């Protein structure tokens, strides 16, 4: 069989893959040399995708409780229970919790059903945990959720600054591209991260800042730029609104020494960073979860964007702030409105937008206000306000903060539906109905990666058993709830065309998200679609999609950083391992990937280990005000003193300990609703 061009199942780099089915359920995987995201490169996770396409552990049939059911019976039950809840308690008594693993077409119909026909905006996504602070920061600064960069900017930059990103592990192919650019043209690399990760190994400078001090660092940098005469006054005058009193406020505590003290950095290192930034106008500042997963994530994003706006380092080759997305289709979810805080096609809930979408979808029921964001959504489930919940392609019983509360909430919810490709997850164990959804290698549709590039994901295999694509499952439920005419699609291309039409319909001429030239794309052209980026080179003309056409600098100040508490003396951070993905439902199937890290470790500085009487390999209890779990100790000087790191991947199904999800607090950023997974007060003791 010949190779099929598709995209990787995992991270937001969105690498192209050339997959050749090899026997029944096996595939030979290569990097797609033509794909502009990776030009043939792959990381370990993508390379071993072929090991994860077997039918081991798959959910192959609809299940009601533990009994196999027909599709008709299962879909009828889901439609009836949702309709009954809506009739008795109103549209806000039901909710969907979806995923950046869905394809754009799946996401579109889920959003249309909930916001357009059920009439609630209670659809949120696990992308809330990943990059919603970047979304909120973009909207505040640019007026629209626009990532202004593309990967080639990394190759055109003279300086790449990585903030809160272990790029070498979490976006490995981008790291390879950065390294190739460094070898070719001597690009400077600065890494800003409390941990000394693999990403720091070859960097020109690593700034191991105090967790949570990012705003102070960026404000200090901006104050330095102003003193050094680097503010682009002409660009500000033409294109950027600066709040009154901004510069005076910035000067407070933003001198080199104060910044170094707040960030717990050596002044000489900080000075070197400022000088590198000053010397290289072509700067890309790439940021990820270390910035977003904070209770001040949106301010941290805007602190970075402020520096780029003030110095005119935006809309130019190699000069941009760059939010890197975690999941393969978090960006597609943003485009369709898969977050509870947006309506559709990058629109918010302004009355004219609600009316516009109502006309387009032909429904009087469009939600008129934002819905519950992830943490609030599960609190509403716990409190009994949500009577029916549908979870698609994600495992919140492991991945949400305070995952123990999420489990209790699901156990008490009157009706829980899980559609997933995996039979048994910590979440599906609590479902009343399980629906077998297509997995990677069976799905057919589109995804959008971190640089706004839309690529096709194509099927290598026919769906096994009774498995169906998510879009089909959602539309069949919609039909049974009485909306068959509005959800009549024969194929993913039908949905994509409607999505493209809506993107034009919403466009008053200012928004950059517009894929309307695909509104009439033929089925053949959709099948053959080459990867492409929407939005061109955003802001190259100095115009921004705000009502005034001007960007906005946002006054942000450093929050007070709490001193360690006597009972909770350790600051705990969470993150990923190189070769695992999310809750390991897929990567856990690959023996080769398991070799990298076989168990979850708590990484601790040697002096902390000594003070706690811990040796390398000991078992230790990691406790926070939220919960506790057991990890094996790794003694390492890559951690700052007084800080610890644990990985997010392990679940009760794989291990009796290592449950990072039980540890973070449910505190969220007030602007984005993104949980603050980082900087949790903790204590660690020998078991
Ligand atoms: Fe897949 Fe990301 Fe690795 Fe590319 S970098 S192969 S998208 S996991």
Automatic annotation (TrEMBL):
<protein>
    <submittedName>
        <fullName>Assimilatory nitrate reductase catalytic subunit</fullName>
        <ecNumber>1.7.99.4</ecNumber>
    </submittedName>
</protein>
<dbReference type="GO" id="GO:0016491">
    <property type="term" value="F:oxidoreductase activity"/>
</dbReference>
<dbReference type="GO" id="GO:0042128">
    <property type="term" value="P:nitrate assimilation"/>
</dbReference>
<dbReference type="GO" id="GO:0016020">
    <property type="term" value="C:membrane"/>
</dbReference>
<keyword id="KW-0500">Molybdenum</keyword>
<dbReference type="GO" id="GO:0051539">
    <property type="term" value="F:4 iron, 4 sulfur cluster binding"/>
</dbReference>
<keyword id="KW-0560">Oxidoreductase</keyword>
<dbReference type="GO" id="GO:0045333">
    <property type="term" value="P:cellular respiration"/>
</dbReference>
<dbReference type="GO" id="GO:1990204">
    <property type="term" value="C:oxidoreductase complex"/>
</dbReference>
<keyword id="KW-0534">Nitrate assimilation</keyword>
<keyword id="KW-0411">Iron-sulfur</keyword>
<comment type="similarity">
    <text>Belongs to the prokaryotic molybdopterin-containing oxidoreductase family. NasA/NapA/NarB subfamily.</text>
</comment>
<feature type="domain" description="4Fe-4S Mo/W bis-MGD-type">
    <location>
        <begin position="1"/>
        <end position="57"/>
    </location>
</feature>
<keyword id="KW-0408">Iron</keyword>
<keyword id="KW-0479">Metal-binding</keyword>
<dbReference type="GO" id="GO:0046872">
    <property type="term" value="F:metal ion binding"/>
</dbReference>
<dbReference type="GO" id="GO:0043546">
    <property type="term" value="F:molybdopterin cofactor binding"/>
</dbReference>
<keyword id="KW-0004">4Fe-4S</keyword>
């Amino acid at each position: 069989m010949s190779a099929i061009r598709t995209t990787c199942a995992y991270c937001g780099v969105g690498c192209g893959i050339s997959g050749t089915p090899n026997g029944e359920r096996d595939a030979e995987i290569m990097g797609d040399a033509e794909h502009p995201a990776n030009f043939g490169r792959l990381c370990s996770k993508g390379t071993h995708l072929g090991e994860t396409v077997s039918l081991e552990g798959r959910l192959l049939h609809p299940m009601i409780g533990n009994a196999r059911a027909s599709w008709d019976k299962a879909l009828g039950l889901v439609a009836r229970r949702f309709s009954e809840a809506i009739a008795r308690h109103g549209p806000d008594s039901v909710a969907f919790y979806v995923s950046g693993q869905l394809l754009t077409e799946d996401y579109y119909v889920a959003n249309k059903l909930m916001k357009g026909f059920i009439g609630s905006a209670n659809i949120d996504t696990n992308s809330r945990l990943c990059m919603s602070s970047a979304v909120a920061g973009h909207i505040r600064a640019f007026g629209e959720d626009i990532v202004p960069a593309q990967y080639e900017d990394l190759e055109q930059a003279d300086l790449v600054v990585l903030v809160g990103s272990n790029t070498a592990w979490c976006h490995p192919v981008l790291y390879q591209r950065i390294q190739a650019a460094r070898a070719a043209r001597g690009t400077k690399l600065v890494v800003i991260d409390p941990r000394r990760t693999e990403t720091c190994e070859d960097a020109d400078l690593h700034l191991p800042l105090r967790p949570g001090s990012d705003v102070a660092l960026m404000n200090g940098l901006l104050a330095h730029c102003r003193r050094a005469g680097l503010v682009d006054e002409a660009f500000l005058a033409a294109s950027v609104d600066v709040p009154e009193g901004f510069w005076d406020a910035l000067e407070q505590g933003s001198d080199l020494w104060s910044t170094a003290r707040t960030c717990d950095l050596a002044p000489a290192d900080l000075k070197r960073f400022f000088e590198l930034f000053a010397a290289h106008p072509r700067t890309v500042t790439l940021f990820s979860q270390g910035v977003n997963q904070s209770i001040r994530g949106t301010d941290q994003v805007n602190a970075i964007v402020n520096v780029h706006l003030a110095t005119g380092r935006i809309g130019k080759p190699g000069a941009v702030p760059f939010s890197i997305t975690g999941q393969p289709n978090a960006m597609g979810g943003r485009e369709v409105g898969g977050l509870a805080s947006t309506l559709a096609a990058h629109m918010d809930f302004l009355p004219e937008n609600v009316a516009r979408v109502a006309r387009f979808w032909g429904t009087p029921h469009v939600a008129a206000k934002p819905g519950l964001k992830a943490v609030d959504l599960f609190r509403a489930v716990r409190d009994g306000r949500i009577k029916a919940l549908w979870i698609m392609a994600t495992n919140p019983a492991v991945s949400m903060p305070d995952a123990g509360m999420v489990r209790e909430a699901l156990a008490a919810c009157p009706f829980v539906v899980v559609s997933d490709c995996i039979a048994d997850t910590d979440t599906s164990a609590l479902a009343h109905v399980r629906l077998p959804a297509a997995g990677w290698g069976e799905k057919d549709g589109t995804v959008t990666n971190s640089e706004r590039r839309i690529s096709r994901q194509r099927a290598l295999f026919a769906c096994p058993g009774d498995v169906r694509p998510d879009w089909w499952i959602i539309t069949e439920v919609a039909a049974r709830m009485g909306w068959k005419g509005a959800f009549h699609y024969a194929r993913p291309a039908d949905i994509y065309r409607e999505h493209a039409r809506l993107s034009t319909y919403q466009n008053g001429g200012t928004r950059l998200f517009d894929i309307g030239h695909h509104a009439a794309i033929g089925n053949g052209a959709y099948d053959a679609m080459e990867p492409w980026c929407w939005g061109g080179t955003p802001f190259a003309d100095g115009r921004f999609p705000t009502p005034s056409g001007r960007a906005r600098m946002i006054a942000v100040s450093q929050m007070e950083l709490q001193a360690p508490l006597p009972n909770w003396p350790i600051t705990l951070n969470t993150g990923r391992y190189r070769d695992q993905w999310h809750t390991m439902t897929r990567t856990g199937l690959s023996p080769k990937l398991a070799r990298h890290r076989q168990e979850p470790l708590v990484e601790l500085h040697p002096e902390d280990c000594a003070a706690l009487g811990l040796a390398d390999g000991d078992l230790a209890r990691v406790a926070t005000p939220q919960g506790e779990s057991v990890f094996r100790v790794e003694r390492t000087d890559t951690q700052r003193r007084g800080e610890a790191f644990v990985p997010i991947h392990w679940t009760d199904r794989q291990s009796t300990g290592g449950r990072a999800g039980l540890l973070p607090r449910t505190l969220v950023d007030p602007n984005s609703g993104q949980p603050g997974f980082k900087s949790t007060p903790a204590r660690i003791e020998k078991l």
